[in-house]
Write a structure and sequence with these properties.
The chain is an alpha/beta fold and 385 residues long. It has 2 domains: 98 residues, no CATH class; 221 residues, Alpha-Beta Barrel (TIM Barrel), CATH 3.20.20.370. It contains 11 helices and 15 strands. A 5-stranded mixed beta sheet has the order 1-2-3-4-5, covered by helices on one side. A hairpin with a 4-residue loop joins strand 1 and strand 2. The longest helix is centred in the C-terminal third of the chain and has 19 residues. The two termini are 25 Å apart. This is Polysaccharide deacetylase familiy protein. Keywords: Hydrolase, Metal-binding. InterPro entries: Glyco_hydro/deAcase_b/a-brl, NODB_dom, Polysacc_deacetylase_ArnD.
């Protein structure tokens, strides 16, 4: 079980400002690139990847100022999607994210100006939408209010639970965690482990949704008839609402992973409240449902984190099994860790945008079935009989 840790002494920075590099992390293998001929000058990159059943591509488009009207955004997305589907017949779907060239800061930076998900079967429908004929439910047309992240975005994996507080606070937290881990289930707004009296464990994914990996992940879960809890970053729910709708329509549970994916300890009460409340609002606006579970990025939390989460109606949810998929140790290592820690009441932590999680998921789900452990959502795991 992960242990509550204290912050490093004399770190020289406010907790949450500087994100540590996970020890032993390796660089993920480069994604294959699809080249369009002739080239589209606005297209920054066009990645593609498969899951053993389907292939999905994601194009990043950078538009200069003066060329960012809605009609232009739609047209360039259509150009990328249609040409990619023509260039690579194996593709099942092309997702496009259109950004402002001057402010583009990667996936965790300022929101896209426009996004669209274009399955091959819906290309004609998307083309009609671009030409002004009707609507299209798998597009985001921009316009979300700009927000400022209160601190550095958490870009490393959840490594170990880290509780920030006074000596007395840490002592109380250790006691609370010990009791919770021993008995299992939700206690005082906290969930460290599920009940062990039945062969059920929770399957969870952080950092959702990602426009390249989300269709691959949801496809694997659908084929295995498995439901999971996906902890969604609020800004991602704004930019890719159709993937969040897909989650709910396919029976998955959507949790809160803050709005900007920031480390919360060290922030003011108002900042912590804004991160959780804005994420709740963004998710509920898409799903029409209240959010029940929350996971703090990095596993970093404090008494203030827990207090605000309770005020927002959230149960703070941790994990028992982190195989380190974001460290890229290799598929065999990830699979071995997952299988060796599989047990009733467990909470498995994976990431929807970690390539090795996609690679090993199919086999892990098969092993869980063989061992008679049902993988499901957090709420189903803790639900009374």
């Amino acid at each position: 079980m992960p242990k509550v840790q204290t912050p490093p002494a004399n770190s020289g920075s406010v907790p949450g400002e500087v994100q540590p590099v996970a020890p032993g992390a390796r660089q993920a293998e480069a994604l294959p690139q699809l080249t369009l001929t002739p080239a589209l000058p606005e297209l920054e990159r066009l990645d593609y990847r498969g899951n053993g059943f389907i292939e999905v591509a994601h194009g990043i488009v950078l538009l200069p100022s003066g060329e960012q009207g809605l009609a232009r955004r739609r047209q360039v997305a259509l150009d990328v999607a249609s040409r990619a589907l023509t260039a690579r017949p194996e593709l099942n779907e092309v997702d496009v994210s259109v950004y402002d060239r001057d402010s583009y800061g990667g996936f965790g930076g300022p929101l896209p100006l426009f996004t669209a998900s274009v399955p091959r079967a819906r290309l004609a429908e998307f083309q009609a939408y671009v030409q002004g004929q009707g609507t299209y439910d798998r597009a985001y047309e921009g316009g979300a209010p700009a927000t400022t992240s209160p601190t550095v975005i958490a870009r490393v994996r959840e490594d170990a639970l880290t509780f920030f507080g006074s000596s007395a606070d840490r002592l109380r937290q250790r006691l609370t965690q010990s009791v919770s881990q021993s008995r299992g289930g939700e206690r005082d707004g906290l969930l460290f482990r599920g009940p062990t009296d039945r062969r059920v464990a929770a399957l969870t994914f952080d950092d959702a949704p990602h426009p390249l990996y989300e269709p691959l992940l949801l496809d694997l879960l659908r084929r295995a008839d498995v439901r999971a809890t996906l902890f969604v970053i609020g800004r991602n729910a704004v930019a890719y609402p159709y993937f969040v709708r897909d989650m709910v329509e396919q029976g998955h549970e959507v949790g809160n992973h803050t709005y900007h994916h920031v480390r919360l300890p060290g922030l003011s009460p108002a900042q912590v409240q804004a991160e959780l409340a804005q994420a709740n609002a963004a998710i509920s606006a898409v799903t029409g449902q209240a959010v029940r579970y929350f996971r703090p990025p990095g596993g970093d939390y404090s008494s203030l984190t827990l207090q605000v989460a309770r005020q927002e109606g959230l149960t703070t949810t941790f994990w028992t099994d982190d195989p380190g998929d974001f460290d890229n140790p290799g598929d065999a290592v990830i699979e071995s860790r997952l299988v060796s820690h599989l047990r009733p009441g467990g909470i498995v932590l994976l990431h929807d945008n970690a390539p090795e999680a996609i690679d090993v998921l199919r086999e892990f789900l098969r092993v869980a079935r063989e061992r008679g452990v049902t993988l499901t959502t957090v709420s189903q795991m803790v639900a009374p009989r």
